[in-house]
Amino acid sequence: MRNSLIVTLFGCLLAVMVIACGKKDPAASVPLSVSVEEAAPTDAYLEQHYVGIVEENTSTPVSFVGSGTLQRVCVEEGQAVSKGQLIAELDMSQAKSLVAAAQAQYDQAQDALRRLRQVYEAGSLPEVKWVEVQSQVAQAKSQLDIARKNLADCRICAPVAGVVGSLNFHAGSVVLTSEPIVSILDISTVKVKVSIPEREISGLSTQTPTTIRVEAVGRTYEGGRIEKGVSADAVTRTYDIRIHVKNADRKLLPGMIADVQMKPAAAATPAAITLPIRCVQQFTGGGQFVWVVEANQAKARRVTTGKTSGNRIVVTEGLKGGEKVIVDGWQKVGEGTPVAIR
Hints:
- The protein is of the alpha+beta class.
- Among the domains are: 29-47 and 270-341, conserved putative lor/sdh protein from methanococcus maripaludis s2 fold (Beta Barrel), CATH 2.40.420.20; 92-153, Helix Hairpins, CATH 1.10.287; 186-262, Elongation Factor Tu (Ef-tu), domain 3 (Beta Barrel), CATH 2.40.30.
- The protein is built from four helices and 22 strands.
- A hairpin with a 2-residue loop joins strand 19 and strand 20 (312-317).
- It is rod-shaped, with a radius of gyration of 42 Å.
- The two termini are 62 Å apart.
- The model is unreliable at 18-27 (pLDDT under 50).
């Protein structure tokens, strides 16, 4: 009885195993979803990216020609000013007093000239005395002109149009001759300063095309003429260049960071296939390969690579163009894995 029960249970178990083995795994027939990139020759890998800093086109310091106490400042940092606009004033009380004194001396000399003219014309005044009176009038006029200029110099106006940069003094400060009160920046055109390695500077010309992205304003600009420095930094061995950029709306401000993209005009390297670095794999025994899609299956393709540019690498051998290379999802595939392109 017991042996019969064991035989029956064994038969049932065998039947279950046969049925289970006869069923196909549904997941095994579902293609793996992958993303691909079609291999195609391009010269985009020749483009270089650099970090640049926006600078003003010119900076004009504005200062008084004399010294004194700053009475008021009429502008603020970042304010747009026009040519001739009042910037600041010194205390004018002493200058006004000097003008009044010089005016009085001039009026006195003029009065003496008028009174002695009749005497001179009547022949009763010696020639030397008449010349002396005329000289006194001229000297008084000169002193009056100087006093008036000193009074006018207590006010400074913008010599050029632009934007107020640094503001170095405030009302009540004592300023000395030629100490800049403010600086006025011309930002109608700006310059983007970039440091270029010495091995790359020879490939740039004054007309090398550049594209400049400034995230602070969310805009991309086309660069203009390039100024090339002629002295290398002693430590970094880089040369400073400055790219002119039009800034009519004055959105670009000094100090902003820019991503500068350029392709050296002298580059004669031919177009080549590039792929994301992440999808190039290493064989266990050495060598590199990528996964390509052939007949809806993943196939390993041996490749040889060259230089890198950003997050991409040049494929020098193994691809001729037109292949669909798996760039996302390659981590889960094997040789002959069914795949479906997203």
